[in-house]
Design brief:
The protein is an alpha/beta fold. The chain folds into 2 domains: 255 residues, Aldehyde Dehydrogenase, Chain A, domain 1 (3-Layer(aba) Sandwich); 188 residues, Aldehyde Dehydrogenase, Chain A, domain 2, CATH 3.40.309.10. It has 15 helices and 18 strands. The chain binds nicotinamide-adenine-dinucleotide (NAD) and manganese (II) ion.
Length: 489
């Protein structure tokens, strides 16, 4: 095993070394690579179909076991809070594992990812004692029947997650699923399994019964075996549109319940009256944060023609001010892309845009010598039908164009297969509300960016997904209503 740059004293989760009850016995492995250096630092087991079968069976039995099924709601809340306490106590190690695995600056992981994951766990830990059905009155024969509904956990949940916010996106699924009383088998992305493995260790330490939260490490084939397993009742997925479609297709034989949080090409409209001192850095970081590896990044920017040049200069200055650096370096503001494959993919988009005659401006101080770093890049006067205006890049690449009338900007914004988020920057309340209503997106941000919270639903319209995470709405994905009709006669 190669030395871990800057994280030399970090203990990797034991499960990687194949300890524990649900150790993976398959002999295949994938290499975990530090994106800041390109060096391999560990071998991650790839679960075989037999491993998946055994782990899902254990989760299926755990779902039916009195140890989990009959635990009272307050005790389930306490267990979830205990896991949150354990994550807080373990924060430096969890953050270091996540930073090493993703290449993100560790200071950002400590300030953003870990607090978010813990906040979600605590927010949904408040639900078990509040989940309730309702009473109803029959329309035609109200006096003759007593009708009520129960909300019952759906069963074993497969959570399948990507590499851009590994712990956060896993927790968006795990927290509501556990609150509902489900059991969960999580398959993290092959690039970033470490935080999930550590989370499962902590869950065991604080007393979650065996099989309630398990991890299967592996690749797309492992994910496919998990998603199509007959004992999985529901799949919660975040990732690419193509994989989401494959999971939906595979769900048909068993009619599994599916939620899909897929990608986007989220537009931002920057009006002439916007407060440029805040709108420019927000429009810039809405695209460049996490090196553009954000599902709801604002990657298409429409700017009023009267301020187009000024805004682009401002955004270039914000890009150039960002320090690209290693994950262990506390001065770093942007990390590398996750892999050589993603670097090639993002470079390909920019190269093809340039070849098509689109002007692309690189806004970066200096790129580290090794690793998969990609500079913030701004493209000018991008035609609406250009590939770079239509496809998700998943890199710090901003496609811009000027507009004259707000109606034109809304039409440009809505001219997309995707609909995850949209943004409008204006001081005019009337424009803000009208535009928010007209934009085809699951979330519209007015004069702000990149906010998600357990308080409100998040998800996509059109090709950006199906169903919602977060809010109280996400609980519907993990609970089945059951109606009980009692004759009173
Ligand atoms: P992916 O969708 O293929 O992978 C996401 C997860 O799904 C991983 O855990 C993967 O192992 C698993 N998976 C792959 N094939 C599967 C299958 N057939 N059945 C079940 N699970 C399967 O994404 P990727 O290949 O890592 O990235 C490709 C592109 O996806 C990126 O360039 C980006 O555009 C997009 N992406 C979007 C998000 C998001 O947050 N919406 C996150 C990561 C990537
Ligand atoms: Mn990794």
């Amino acid at each position: 095993m190669t030395a871990l740059h800057g994280f030399e004293n970090l203990a990797l989760p034991d499960t990687i070394l194949r300890a524990g009850d649900d150790a993976i016995t398959g002999t295949a492995t994938s290499v975990d690579i530090d994106p800041c250096t390109g060096d391999a630092f560990g071998d991650i087991p790839v679960a075989s179909p037999a491993d998946v079968d055994r782990i899902v069976d254990a989760a299926w039995h755990a779902f039916r076991s009195p140890a989990w099924r009959d635990i009272n709601p307050l005790a389930r809340e306490r267990l979830m809070h205990r896991l949150a306490d354990a994550m807080e106590a373990d924060l430096p190690r969890l953050a270091a594992l996540e930073a090493l695995d993703t290449g993100k600056p560790v200071a950002i992981v400590e300030a953003v990812d870990l607090p978010a994951a813990i906040a979600w766990l605590r927010a949904y830990a408040g639900w078990p004692s509040k989940i309730a059905g309702r009473a109803g009155t029959l329309s035609a024969t109200p006096g003759s029947y007593h009708v009520y509904s129960r909300r019952e956990p759906i069963g074993v949940v497969a959570a399948i997650t990507p590499w851009n916010f590994p712990l956060v996106l896993a927790m968006w699924k795990i927290a509501p699923a556990l609150a509902a009383g489900c059991t969960v088998v999580l398959k993290p992305a092959p690039e970033t399994p470490l935080s999930a493995l550590r989370l499962a260790e902590l869950a065991r330490e604080v007393g979650f019964p065996a099989g309630v939260l398990s991890i299967v490490t592996g690749d797309g084939a492992t994910g496919a075996a998990l998603a199509s397993h007959p004992r999985i009742a529901k799949v919660a997925f975040t990732g690419s549109t193509a994989t989401g479609q494959a999971i939906l297709a595979a769900s048909v034989p068993d009619l599994k319940r599916i939620t899909l949080e897929l990608g986007g090409k989220s537009p931002s409209i920057l009006c002439a009256d916007a407060d440029l001192a805040t709108a420019i850095p927000q429009a810039a970081m809405g695209c460049f944060f996490n090196s553009g590896q954000v599902c709801y990044a604002g990657t298409r920017l429409y700017v009023h023609r009267s301020i187009y040049d000024q805004v682009l200069e401002g955004i270039a200055a914000v890009g150039a001010s960002q320090k690209l650096g290693r994950s262990a370096d506390r001065e770093s503001q942007l990390g590398p892309l996750i892999s050589a494959r993603q670097h090639e993919r993002v470079s390909g988009f920019v190269d093809r845009a340039r070849a098509a005659g689109i002007e692309a401006m690189t806004a970066s101080s200096a790129l580290p010598r090794s690793g998969y770093y990609f500079p913030p890049t701004i493209l000018r006067d991008v035609p609406p039908d250009a590939e770079i205006a239509r496809d998700e890049v998943f890199g710090p690449v901003l496609a811009t164009a000027p507009f004259d009338e707000i109606e034109e900007a809304v039409a440009l914004a809505n001219d997309s297969a995707f609909g995850l988020a949209a943004h409008v920057f204006t001081k005019d309340l009337s424009v803000a509300h009208r535009t928010a209503a007209a934009l085809e997106a699951g979330t519209v941000f007015v004069n702000c960016i990149l906010l998600a919270d357990p308080a409100f639903p998040f998800g996509g319209v059109k090709m950006s997904g199906m169903g919602r995470e977060n809010g109280s709405e996400v609980l519907d994905a993990y609970l089945e209503p059951k109606s009980i009709v009692m004759a009173l006669a």
